Structure formats: C-alpha cells, structure tokens
C-alpha cells in the first residue's frame, strides 16, 4: 500500500523514538529501562501527588458556603445590613438564597430585589390559612398551625443552613420550628430587649414606659439575637447589647438608638453562627 509522504515520515519517527518491547520467559511485557523510575523519582512523584491532593481538598473546604433564608415584615433595614455584610465578607462565605415577607408593602422586597435575591410574599390571610378578622381562637390556632407548616416547607425548599428572622412580626409555633429542627437548620431572631425582659411585641415602647415611670433598672434596655424556640423570645442568647435611655429622650430617640445597635448586632451574631456552621461542614 502506498503511503503519503507525511505518513511515511511519521512512521519513521515513531520507529526511532519507540523502544522495542522485550519479553521474558513467561511472555510478560517488561517496561523499557529508560522508562523505569528510580526510588528518588518515585518518592518525588508520590509527594507531589500527595501535595496536590491536599491542596485540592483544602480548596474544596474553603469554597463551602452557608445558605441563608431571611424572613422580614417591614422596611428591611436589618436585612440591608445583612446583605451588605454578606457582600463585603463580614458574614463569611454566605449566600442569601431567598427573602420571605408576610406583608405585601414590606420595603424589604425592594432591598432584596435590588441585590438580586429572590423574594416571596407569604401571608396568613391572603394565603387562605385564616379569614380576615377571624376572632375564634380555635380557628386562629388551627390556621396559624397550617400556615407555619406550609412556611416551613417553603423555607426548606431552598435547603438553608440558617434562617434569620430580621424584623419578622409573627410568632412561630411547633409546626414551623420542628421540621427545621429535624432538618438541622437553626433559626435566629432579633429581639429589641434584654433576655427575660419585654417578651413579645412592642418591647421598645414598654421599656420606655417603664423608664418614664422610674421602673427601668439602671435606665437600660437592650437588644439580643437568640435562637428561636417554642417559648417566645426565650431561646438561648447569641449576642446581647445594652441600650441606655437618657433623660429627655423621646420614644423616637430610643427607637433610633435601638435600631442603630440592632444593625451591628444582627451582623455580628449572623457572622458568629455562620462561622460555626462552616466549621462543622469541614468535619
């Protein structure tokens, strides 16, 4: 068969660089001596492979991220603090997967959308879980239970590592908390009061009323970030910061001072919990 010139040259080159194969008495192919590794070369390759494997594993561990879902009801100033902290790395290696609101007018939606974060409006009444203006306690309890269960399912669709309540005006019951606990997902909440004081709604206003009546201990209230449990605002505190109420302060003054503290506190606490989650992921 006539070969093209290029093919002839190629075959000739191959014959020059390919060493002849040798066979022993058992017809096993032996590696050419020129390709056998010395002990030093073998050790060098082994160490190099080990180092590459270690670097690959280290790189993989540092790229682990913490997936967040944030729940809001209002203007979203605390959400904005978290968005900024995630963006600049103050909250390490994290991504906000979704922001859920329960009030249609919540400005938190605009903040999330501006940051490119998916949002969802999920409301107790508009979702059909309870009738508007319902007064029957049994029906309200049943409806809230179904709402909480449905919201837990919605939250878990994003497979979060952490749920942050940042100004969320709805008290959760077992149908929300237990599925998240079973999935190993902690829930943390911002509450504008010190541990064991002013549980529930209007905490700042109640502290201010006590101050005016001379009943506020050391003229100080505060804010805390705590883990959420079924007992309202009684979960284990993560971080606490006191806020002084001064003579001549209006309620608006106290609220402004409190909100300023809240923004820093929610970032610090979120970063702390996220770091703990990332450490566990390494194990």
From TrEMBL:
- The EC designation for this entry is 2.1.2.2
Listed pathway(s): Purine metabolism; IMP biosynthesis via de novo pathway; N(2)-formyl-N(1)-(5-phospho-D-ribosyl)glycinamide from N(1)-(5-phospho-D-ribosyl)glycinamide (10-formyl THF route): step 1/1
Gene Ontology BP term (one): 'de novo' IMP biosynthetic process
Q: Does the keyword ATP-binding apply?
A: no
Cite the InterPro entries for this sequence: Formyl_transf_N, Formyl_transf_N_sf, GART, GART_AS
- Chloroplast among the record's keywords? no
One GO cellular component term of this record is: cytoplasm
Q: Which GO terms describe its molecular function?
A: phosphoribosylglycinamide formyltransferase activity
Q: Which PROSITE patterns match?
A: GART
Instruction: Extract the ranges annotated as region (Disordered).
Output: 1-26
Enumerate the UniProt keywords alphabetically.
Purine biosynthesis, Transferase
Catalytic EC class: transferase
Q: So what does this thing catalyse?
A: N(1)-(5-phospho-beta-D-ribosyl)glycinamide + (6R)-10-formyltetrahydrofolate = N(2)-formyl-N(1)-(5-phospho-beta-D-ribosyl)glycinamide + (6S)-5,6,7,8-tetrahydrofolate + H(+)
Query: Where would I find the Formyl transferase N-terminal domain in this sequence?
Result: 67-269
Any Pfam family? Formyl_trans_N
Q: According to its UniProt record, which protein family does this protein belong to?
A: Belongs to the GART family.
Question: Which protein, by its recorded name, is this?
Answer: Phosphoribosylglycinamide formyltransferase
Species in which this protein is naturally found: Colletotrichum lupini
